[in-house]
Amino acid sequence: MGAAYFSVGGLELVSVSIVYTVHPPPPAFSSSSYRAGYNPASEVPSPAEMEPDRPIGYGAFGVVWSVTDPRDGRKVALKKMPNVFQNLVSCKRVFRELRMLCFFKHDNVLSALDILQPPQIDCFEEIYVITELMQSDLHKVIVSPQPLTTDHIKVFLYQILRGLKYLHSAGILHRDIKPGNLLVNSNCLLKICDFGLARVEEPDPSRHMTQEVVTQYYRAPEVLMGCRHYGSAIDVWSVGCIFAELLGRRILFQAQSPIQQLDLITDLLGTPPLSALASACEGARAHILRGPHKPPSLSVLYMLSDGATHEAVHLLCRMLVFDPAKRISGSDALSHPYLDEGRLRYHTCMCQCCYSVPSGRVYTRDFEPVAERPFSHSYENSLLSVWQGKELIHRFITEHQQGKRVPLCINPQSAAFKTFIR
Ligand SMILES: [Zn+2]
């Protein structure tokens, strides 16, 4: 399969899609080969008919609800950012996330469609952001019984890396890439979400960065070893773990503690060379050197599934490199031949950047665009107090809304709101 799905003009291309189910999520997951048993009339309601307003998820910080936009009846996601003004740290973090959501312009990165109108500044405590509503996420898809073909995996991995290349080109580290933060839609469109832990890359290697990042299973070895400075390679490691999880449908490194997490990694990759331990903290280095010398056992990756072809394992082994300096970049990973079919499929029937004319498909000149400019965080240094932050965020939201649609605000009398604030 795979190549047989494609024809030159794209006319015979069968799109991979997740079909909506009425209730409950995650949606059924389909490709042409599995569509025979479906009754489309009963299984594809319009999203608006699906469900009343309800909570759909919890990010690192904040709650997400599925709601209806009263201006056009469209189902959208509403995210509440609570406890914004508790202290200066949370104030900075939320303002950073808000600015990022408004900065992003990429189909594989979730962005803000709107921000609810804040009350007068004295009553301003919470921020509500509206984003596009996605049907599911990769975690739900992986643990569901729905079939996950090589074509699905290729088109998902392509989009993850395409979004990541954009983020990294803007100088942003996501720092919490995991299946639950990769939203997927009915047509397999994928968007990276949850920027609660994201930050701008630190160019100065002498500056310390927090170790409290990335869900443990997806945490890169340099973070597990207490490295004081890290870069975009930590996100690529997470993507490698997710790639293996898509192939094997189980978590690649599922440990009980950070030390055991490191042990599982060295079981697979072998004992790292001393050069890869240079930035590790004393305890981590001692732990690795004290243990037995382990040979690499990468051949077990071929046993993840039938989809673990030579090409797949080759790319996987370029992402799961212990030394971040030798790990492939997100941008270079996109050039790997394993992703050629995913690129073709994405740009033949899923993207917004190419279009069809009677004589065929007109492809964009740049399949994986970078950000127009780096994300600026210079304002953060001038943020010195919670009150000043409150004023700044209030002004940012008000300015962001100017000249746009009729502003929305929360109706505190609504029944849904009362459960929402809990
Ligand atoms: Zn395109």
Automatic annotation (TrEMBL):
Subcellular compartments: Cytoplasm; Nucleus
Major site of localization recorded for this protein: cytoplasm
Enzyme Commission number(s) from the entry: 2.7.11.24
Keywords: ATP-binding, Cytoplasm, Kinase, Magnesium, Metal-binding, Nucleotide-binding, Nucleus, Phosphoprotein, Serine/threonine-protein kinase, Transcription, Transcription regulation, Transferase, Wnt signaling pathway
PROSITE patterns reported in the protein's UniProt record: MAPK, PROTEIN_KINASE_ATP, PROTEIN_KINASE_DOM, PROTEIN_KINASE_ST
Coiled coil: none
Binding site for ATP: K79
Sequence ranges assigned to domain Protein kinase in this UniProt record: 50-339
Catalysed reactions, as listed in the record: L-threonyl-[protein] + ATP = O-phospho-L-threonyl-[protein] + ADP + H(+); L-seryl-[protein] + ATP = O-phospho-L-seryl-[protein] + ADP + H(+)
Tagged with keyword Kinase: yes
InterPro entries named in the record: Kinase-like_dom_sf, MAP_kinase_CS, MAPK, Prot_kinase_dom, Protein_kinase_ATP_BS, Ser/Thr_kinase_AS
Record comment: activity regulation: Activated by threonine and tyrosine phosphorylation.
Source taxon at top rank: Eukaryota
GO-annotated biological processes: regulation of signal transduction; Wnt signaling pathway
Gene3D superfamilies: Phosphorylase Kinase, domain 1, Transferase(Phosphotransferase) domain 1
GO molecular function, a single term: MAP kinase activity
One protein family per Pfam: Pkinase
Keyword ATP-binding included in the entry's annotation: yes
Family assignment from sequence similarity: Belongs to the protein kinase superfamily. CMGC Ser/Thr protein kinase family. MAP kinase subfamily.
Name listed for the protein in its UniProt record: Mitogen-activated protein kinase
